[in-house]
Amino acid sequence: MSTNENITNKDLEKSKTAFLQINDSEYVRLVSLISDVWERARDNAAIAVNTELLEANWKTGRYIVEFEQGGNVKAEYGKQLLTNLSKDLTRLRGKGYSRSNLFNMRLFYVRFPKIQTVSGQLSWSHYLELLKCDDPLEIQFYMKECIKEGWKVRELKRQINSSLFQRLALSTDKEGVLALANEGHQVMTTSDIIRDPYVLEFAGLPQQKRYKESDLERALKSHIEQFLLELGRGFAFIGRQYIIPIGSRRFKVDLVFYHTILKCYVLIDLKRAEIKHGDIGQMNLYLNYFKNEICQPDDNPPVGIVLGAKKDELLMEYALQGIDNQLFAARYQLYLPNREELQSQLNRLLDNTQS
Fold it and tell me: Where is 47: in which H helix or E strand?
């Protein structure tokens, strides 16, 4: 390269740099506009692709069901229909048409016979988890919650495995169960945020023969994302071992949250064994302190939850009697509940209500 050419290139670079400096705000705006266009385009393309995929899966399921119902499934190959379809479609279209995939597409249509009830806000992977549920009310509930809460597939899977629908449904009546399915879980009062039992299988403590309350507390803090998922919508983590100085003494609340919907603090004290009446009195002390020292004028009264491995219902009834604060005693378990047993209890609840 000649000296003249080298000088020319340097001059061009200087000129270009000077132009960007002079027009810096306009250039930044240009970059932002183009970036936004492509971001929207990618988002819209992903939504369009997802919608088309769901519709194709649904139509495939419909065609299979209509073929079966039309009497076209002859005895000699009826049981082999999905297997034959898998082979032929794979030969024509490539991967993606395994027998299990076709089975799920068929089930997709059976569970959602109206395409209007299929939401493009959920992916096919979401629907594969929903198809594992047999109860239409349960499917409808998880759909509502998934869309409302923006659950990822793993979060949806966890909530189904922890039998969230059954746990919430068993705390209400038939009308409440139907409302739960049609509207999702509504948080309107403090009792709406209480679950009994809380399922804390993610803490990783079941294998330990003995553990301390501090072990459970640390495990919940280490898995705060999963714990917030179990607590439900509206919880914001404030801190652990929250210090309460009263006179010359210092008390500590295990976990403190703020509920963004109810506009109140939520205090949780963990008990490794059975909840005692003294634990209720201690939480009542914490709530009184928060009301007088921590809560702001626009905050609602704080909520206290004493969370233990066991509780005596009658003892708790007497211990909580006469307390003005919003205080609850609830159980937790470190393993996933028996889904079949909970569903059986729910079925009995609905049958008894109908009779």
Answer: helix 24-69
Q: Is the pLDDT of residue 78 over 70?
A: no
**How are the residues of the chain apportioned to helix, strand and coil, as percentages rounded to the nearest 5?**
60, 15, 25
CB of 177 closer than 8 Å to CB of 169: yes
**pTM surpassing 0.90?**
no
Instruction: State the helix-helix crossing angle for 153-161 and 136-149, rounded to 10 degrees.
Output: 140
Indicate the burial class of 227 (C-beta count within 10 angstroms; 0-12, 13-18, 19 or more).
buried
Q: Which fold has domain 198-336?
A: Trna Endonuclease; Chain: A, domain 1 (3.40.1350)
Q: Taking Cα atoms as reference points, which of 288, 258, 229 lies closest to residue 268?
A: 258
Give per-residue pLDDT as tens, 117-138. 999 999 999 999 999 999 999 9
Bridge-based pairing of strands 249-259 and 235-246 is antiparallel
Q: What would the mean pLDDT of 276-282 be, rounded to a whole number?
A: 97
